[in-house]
């Protein structure tokens, strides 16, 4: 059995051993902004918390564009690895790196150019607009680092190495927290200091994992014969990458649109949402990463023609995801208040109450998002990334539409925004599962 080969060995054991480092890695990645939020909320006050929280939603959207491109390419890498087509793998690596690097540069330039327009679009209150702009200008400097880390981590995961990205993130997360404390408390750099700490840490992980990949995986190094952009290869990479990017970015664009609606309810609701979203992200992040690990498992076995392992893996993944979501829902429901108190002072009773209301609604329905992440990974791995886009459109379209409609009813208000989310999840689940059941033979 080749190291990183997911087409051999016990199905669930192989999948779980591959998934656990991915889960731990992305939990650490969340520490970047959560450290900012916690330190800013505790030491700089609710206005700074609202500014950094809104910026987090924006950066999640921008990161999702790059992550989607990298994840789409990763599916191609996994299929080539499963087929043992190493020349095809190297050609795909060269083509995808050029494509995503160019897009990253353009995205970075666009972000700097449109900063003020973004603040208007998000309906950021005047009293925190300057603070949020200061934070964004610094945080945008880390976009290329985000590209480097996500590209090489997706490449390593595609060939079955999920441990190395975890190690680089562990070092980077610890560095981020240490720099946060130093810049904010020691140097009194304010929100700009929190952003500077994040950017420096991002470059440590991004450059570090790129250097590691070059020296530790010589068999992946590109030769002159692979430095070409064939139309068929570019079409395949673009097909997977662009559609996965659309799926990821549409998902987060919907959240960004809801952020603007949330901001219209004032600073208290903004701050509550900023904290609750962090807790929410931590809660379902493991099942999101499990869905990505599941996707790599399916893609390698799809490339190898192992239909039996795909079917066994799908059944096992659904069970594991369901049980985890039930457990995490119970934890979030019970500990909603203590979790909110990690980020805000107990004197901020209105922020705590609104955040708890959000968590009690969202936290009860994590099974819906768990199933949806598995469906995203399944269709991407089976060469149908367009179906993931459809499911995202259903989920987020429902969320945005219902959020605006329900919140406009005086008797419902902001609670309508919170309820729109699980409704969108379950509607997309119904469509995705129905499609798979009906066309399973054709898909496999």
Can you describe what's shown?
- With 444 residues, this protein is mainly α.
- It has one domain (11-443).
- Helices cover 84% and strands 0% of the residues.
- It is built from 16 helices and no strands.
- The chain has helices at residues 11-43, 46-83, 86-113, 115-121, 126-139, 143-158, 163-186, 190-216, 231-263, 267-304, 307-334, 336-341, 349-362, 366-381, 385-407, 415-443.
- The two termini are 24 Å apart.
What secondary-structure arrangement, pairings included, does this model have?
Blueprint: H1 11-43, H2 46-83, H3 86-113, H4 115-121, H5 126-139, H6 143-158, H7 163-186, H8 190-216, H9 231-263, H10 267-304, H11 307-334, H12 336-341, H13 349-362, H14 366-381, H15 385-407, H16 415-443
Describe the structure in brief.
The protein is mostly helical. The protein has 16 helices and no strands. It has one domain.
Give the oligomer, counting copies of the same chain as homo and different chains as hetero: single chain
Q: Measured on Cα atoms, how large is the radius of gyration? A: 21 Å
**How many structural domains?**
1
Helix content: over 70%
The outline comes out as globular
Structural class category: mainly alpha
Mean pLDDT: 84
State which percent range the strand residues make up: under 5%
- Main sheet summary: none
Distance between the termini: 24 Å
Low-confidence stretches: none
SSE pattern: HHHHHHHHHHHHHHHH
Count of helical regions: 16
Q: How many beta strands in the DSSP annotation?
A: 0
């Amino acid at each position: 059995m080749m190291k990183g080969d997911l087409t051999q060995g016990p199905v669930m054991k192989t999948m779980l051993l591959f998934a656990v480092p991915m889960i731990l890695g992305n939990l650490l990645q969340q520490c970047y902004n959560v450290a900012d939020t916690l330190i800013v909320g505790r030491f700089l006050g609710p206005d700074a918390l609202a500014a950094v929280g809104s910026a987090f939603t924006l950066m999640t959207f921008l990161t999702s564009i790059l992550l989607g491109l990298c994840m789409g390419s990763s599916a191609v890498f996994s299929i080539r690895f499963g087929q043992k087509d190493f020349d095809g793998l190297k050609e795909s690596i060269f083509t995808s790196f050029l494509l995503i690097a160019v897009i990253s540069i353009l995205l970075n330039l666009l972000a700097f150019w449109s900063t003020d327009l973004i603040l208007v679009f998000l309906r950021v209150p005047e009293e925190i607009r300057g603070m949020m702009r200061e934070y964004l200008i610094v945080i945008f400097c880390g976009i290329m680092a985000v590209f480097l880390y996500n590209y090489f981590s997706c490449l390593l995961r595609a060939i079955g190495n999920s441990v190395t990205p975890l190690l680089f993130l562990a070092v980077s997360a610890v560095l981020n927290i240490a720099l946060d404390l130093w810049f904010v408390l020691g140097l009194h750099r304010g929100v700009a200091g929190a952003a500077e700490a994040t950017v420096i840490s991002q470059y440590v992980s991004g450059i570090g994992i790129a250097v590691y990949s070059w020296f530790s995986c010589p068999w992946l190094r590109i030769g002159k014969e692979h430095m070409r952009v064939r139309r068929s290869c570019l079409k395949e990479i673009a097909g997977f990458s662009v559609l996965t990017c659309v799926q990821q970015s549409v998902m987060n664009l919907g959240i960004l649109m809801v952020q603007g609606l949330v901001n219209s309810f004032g600073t208290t609701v903004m701050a509550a949402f900023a904290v609750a979203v962090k807790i929410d992200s931590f809660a379902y992040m493991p099942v999101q990463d499990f869905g990505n690990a599941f996707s790599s498992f399916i893609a390698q076995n799809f490339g190898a023609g192992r239909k039996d392992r795909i079917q066994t893996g799908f059944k096992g993944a659904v069970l594991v995801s369901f049980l985890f979501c039930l457990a995490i829902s119970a934890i979030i429901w019970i500990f909603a208040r203590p979790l909110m108190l990690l980020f805000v002072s107990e004197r901020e009773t209105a922020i705590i109450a609104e955040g708890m209301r959000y968590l009690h609604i969202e936290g009860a329905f994590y099974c819906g998002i768990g199933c949806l992440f598995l469906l995203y990974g399944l269709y991407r791995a089976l060469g149908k990334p367009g179906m993931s886009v459809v499911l995202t459109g259903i989920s987020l379209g429902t969320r945005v539409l219902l959020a605006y409609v329900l919140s406009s009813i005086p008797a419902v208000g902001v609670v309508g925004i919170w309820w729109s989310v699980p409704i969108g999840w379950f509607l997309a689940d119904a469509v995705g599962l129905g499609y798979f059941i009906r066309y399973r033979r054709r898909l496999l």
